[in-house]
Structure formats: structure tokens, C-alpha cells
Amino acid sequence: MFPQQLTDSRVFEIAKALLDGFDRHYKIFSETSAQSKRRFEQADWHGQQLAQRARIEFYDMRVDEAVERLERDFNASKLPMEVWHQIKLFYIGLLTGHYQPELAETFFNSVTIQILHRKYYRNDFIFVRPAVSTEYIDDEEGKPTFRAFYPTKDNLRDTLKAVVESYELTVPFDDLDRDVDLIYGVLMEQVGNVRLRTNFQIQVLSSLFFRNKGAYIVGKVVNGFRSLPFAIPILHNSKSRLYIDAALFGEDDLLALFSFARAYFMVDMKVPSAYVQFLRSLMPRKPRGEIYSAIGLQKHGKNLFYRDFLFHLRHSTDKFRIAPGIKGMVMLVFDLPSYPFVFKVIKDYFPPQKETTREQIMGKYQLVKQHDRVGRMADSLEFTKVAFPRNRFDDELIEELRKFAPSVIEEEGDSLVIKHLYIERRMVPLNIYIQEASASSLEHAVIEYGNAIKDLVAANIFPGDMLWKNFGVTRNGKVVFYDYDEIEYITDCNFRKVPEPRNEEDEMSGEIWYSVGPHDVFPETFGPFLLGDPRVRQIFMKHHADLLDPAYWQERKERIQAGYVHDVFPYDRSRRFIHKIQGKDSAQINAEMAPVEEPVDVRPEGPEVHDQGVLSGFATGGVDAGG
């Protein structure tokens, strides 16, 4: 409904108060992101982790502040709807010329749905579709979104060095010329003897991307109508100097770097839509919502996901069903076959062996949201009061919801409202994958499963329930954990060896004869639950037998308690430059470039190795990203 006249003189003040709330949020968000450069230079890894967690909480804090102000100053929940329509119109006007209009629209939604009754904000009031275009927005006063460099074949190596130096990191490089030579060598493998067109250039985003212990240069090489995406990871070595660890080229490498199973990047950016537009040119297969989430703007990412979901519902006819696989004891999981996500609802009651509560489970999911997911824990989108079309649910699913989660659903006419749910990317459950796997795929899956657990351990996460059904296999063969109701910090667990039987009666007893504390874990007991299949057992014991040894877990726990932050690489270890350095000093250089006490790890050949076809495509007709 378009307002015909101004009926309340306060609408501008209310609209301005809403925008002030968002501007305050983005200012704090940006300052925290900008400080990641200083934390990286100082190797303040714990500070980086704390900032990552705190930044996720900022949005809800600012929303609560805005709601409180609107209620206190304007009695907002009592305003008639025609006034709210006028407020929205004025708000749109205030976004003209704004640098983050799409995020401000999402903030408007977040505030108003807390103030207004659900029947008012379903579709006709909130920003279901964007009202303000984000096309061609750029920072006209500060640094541009990206910088372009125009090398020739003769000075390409010098240009690559200039690209790295343009970020003005205050920590010196150990040997930048050596690292640039390595980048140049990898680039030449992709470019070869291709003819350089008149527009040959290197474009890089103006800000570095920070996550965990790394900083990343992100950009693309443009030649004619084709472009080659790349990312350059920069790390600290054991001498407190910087070095370039690898050169990642091609869309698949970028997709792995920006995976939904990894923590959000910290990026200093005044115009996020311009960054997203650039990143989409590198990863055209990745939805915009996931890119927004990857750069820390997960609330807007969730908003875009919901828009895509509504669009899909309108243009599909299949029905929601109970998700295939073993049913969970805590979560009721359903999916829509035509949509690559699953929907998870916390049940109202659990079997006796699950000593937990709804609040504790929600706390576990929040822990994962705030933690470094190291490529091994799926990101979850949390929604409240979602109205689904009732006729799109099959009868069996409706009965399951009524039986196991009656407090979470409301049936209103043609709608089924779910009061709280999580939405995650759909994967093939690992137990199903193993049942159907060929010999080579089985070996890959079991090795990847062990690697997933070891990566979680490096991130101070104990999965709790390590059964195969709680892990999934992604499109690229990556094994990812997705059942969070029993996760704990490694540092909160007590890893013990099973005591020796005191006598023959203990040895023959089917019951345990020793005391077990609430946080005690006995890794030796994992085997009977995980390794019943002889094929699986043989592979597991060959590559990951250490996971059944309490000493392995205890050693990792002690290192974490001592303050050590493990390196978890978002790319295959074989891509690291330490494998390319030759010469008499190579052993010393490799030792300096390797993380301190880097754990031995097995990375299988096969599906996890990223498809490199796009790389040679730069010379023979590869990705056309609109260069």
C-alpha cells in the first residue's frame, strides 16, 4: 500500500532513528574488521578469534538497541500500519546515496519484525525485495573497491611484487622476491604462451581478507574476454616474518576458500555490495547470499537466502518430506527434494540417553556459528516464525511434526508456521555414502572422515557423537560434520585410558567397572561403534589409528591449553610452496615456513582434490567472468 498522505509528523524522526541504529552497527562492524590487519601484523591470533566471535554478536545487540529506542521514544508497537508504511517510504528515501543500502534494508526488517505482529510483516511490509539498487556503488571519497595493474610479459614479475607491496603490511617479508618467483611460476603454468590482449591486467580487491592465521589477496587476471580468479595466502613464519604460502588459481580454489563450512572473513570494506559483485565475477556459481555471509554479513546473507527460497517455492511443486537417512534423536530433519538444503527442528522431547535441553542445543549451534569451522562444520541459518504453505508438506512429515515437535508448529489455515528451525546445506550422509561407495571412494571417505576429526581437534572441538551418520559428504568429496548437540571444547574434556580389569569378574562383565565423570572420554571405545565393517576398519587403522589413542587427544588438548593455535589450511597441502623450494637451503626454509609442530596429516587423492580444469581454461577458453 503506497501512502497517500503524511498522517504523523514523527515518521521522519522514526525512519532516521532506524537508520542511525544501522549506521552505528556498521561503524562498529567496520572498525572491528579494519583492526584485523593490525592483529594479523602483531600475530595476535587469540585476539583475532575473540574479535570474530564478538563481531557476530554485534548485529543482534544493535537491533535490540533500536527496538528499545523506538519503543521508548515513539511507542512504536502501537503505531497504526499506515504510519509504518510512511516510515518505510521515508526510510527508502534516506537510503538514496547510502553506501550499504541493502544491509540497511535487512536491518529495517530485523527491527520491525520484533515490534510488529507477524500478520503485518509477512510480505507486504518488510523488504522482501530490495527497494534500492546497489549497482555501481563505490567509495568516491576513499579507496576504490579494487585496484588494477597493467603488466607486460617483460615486467609481470615486478608487477606481482607491486601487487603484494600495495597492501603496505608493516611486518617485513622473509624473502618476497623468492615468493614472487614462486607465484610467477604457478601463473605461467596457467597462462603458458597465451597471447596477451590489449586489456591484460591484474585486478585485486583493495582490502586483504583475514581469517584464522592468514591474510589473503583476492583478485583475478584478465585477458581479453576471459579471467582467471586467484587468491594469495600470506602467513607468518617461525622468525616472525611474512611469507606467501601458495598461489590458488581457478574458481574451484576460490569456492573452497569461501566454503560454507569455514569461518567468516574479516574484511575492511565501505561498500560491501561492490565487493560481492567482484567476488561473484570470480565465483559465478556461488549464490550472493553465501558470499555476503562469507565476508561476515551473515544476516543479509540469510535475508538473500530467504528471498531465493521464496522464489524457488513459487516455481516448484514438489513436497517437503522427512529427510532420507537415519532419524536423529534430537532433531527432526526434513527437506524439499528440488532444493539443496535441509531443515532441522529441535524435538520437544529426547530419549533418556540424551541429557540435554532445547536451550543447550541452541547454545551449541551458536558456538559453531562463532567458532572457526575450519572447513569441517556446516554453517547453519537460524530462522524463527517461518510460514510455509501447508499443502507442500506430505502427510507423513506433518504427523512427525505433530508427534515430536508440537510446541514448535502452528497450523493456521493454509499455512504451517514453524516457530524455530535451522537450515543447512544438504550433503550425502557419510553412512549412506559408505554403503554405496566403490573401493576407491570408500578409502577416500574413511581417510577424509579421520581428517575431519583431526581438523576439528585442531580447532578445539570434540564432536561428541562421532558416528558416520553425523557427517556428510559435499559435492567435492569433503567430509563435513553437521550434528552439534553433543560438541564440546577439547579443553573441557578429560581423555582417559580404559583402566585394566581388577579381576576376572571385571573382565567378563558386560558393564563398566570404573567410574566415569561427565566430561570423561575414552577414545579406545570408539572402535566398536565405528569400525564394525572390516573394510572400513582396515583403512581407518592404516591412516587414523591414533584417534583411538587417548595420548593423541591429550597431547592436542595440552597444546591448545598452552596457547598454540593450529594451522588449518583451506587448500590442499600439496599446493604449498614449501614443496617447490629447491636448493641447499631448502630444508631450513621449509622448517621456517612450516607451522610449528605441524601434525602429520593424510590427504587422499580423489574427489577432494579440486578440479583444475578451469586453470588451463585461461589459455584455451575457460571461465568468462565478464573480465
TrEMBL record:
It comes from Aquabacterium olei. Its EC number is 2.7.11.5, 3.1.3.-. It catalyses: L-seryl-[isocitrate dehydrogenase] + ATP = O-phospho-L-seryl-[isocitrate dehydrogenase] + ADP + H(+). One of its GO terms (cellular component) is cytoplasm. Residues 607-627 are annotated as: Disordered. The active site is at residue 379. Pfam families: AceK_kinase (PF06315), AceK_regulatory (PF20423). This is Isocitrate dehydrogenase kinase/phosphatase. Its main location: cytoplasm. The keyword ATP-binding applies. Residues 15-316 form the Isocitrate dehydrogenase kinase/phosphatase (AceK) regulatory domain. Bifunctional enzyme which can phosphorylate or dephosphorylate isocitrate dehydrogenase (IDH) on a specific serine residue. This is a regulatory mechanism which enables bacteria to bypass the Krebs cycle via the glyoxylate shunt in response to the source of carbon. When bacteria are grown on glucose, IDH is fully active and unphosphorylated, but when grown on acetate or ethanol, the activity of IDH declines drastically concomitant with its phosphorylation. It is found in: Cytoplasm. Residues 318-572 form the Isocitrate dehydrogenase kinase/phosphatase (AceK) kinase domain. It comes from the Bacteria. ATP binds at residues 323-329, 344. Belongs to the AceK family. InterPro entries: AceK_kinase (IPR046855), AceK_regulatory (IPR046854), Isocitrate_DH_AceK (IPR010452). GO terms for biological process: glucose metabolic process; glyoxylate cycle; tricarboxylic acid cycle. Keywords: ATP-binding, Cytoplasm, Glyoxylate bypass, Hydrolase, Kinase, Nucleotide-binding, Protein phosphatase, Serine/threonine-protein kinase, Transferase, Tricarboxylic acid cycle. One of its GO terms (molecular function) is AMP binding.
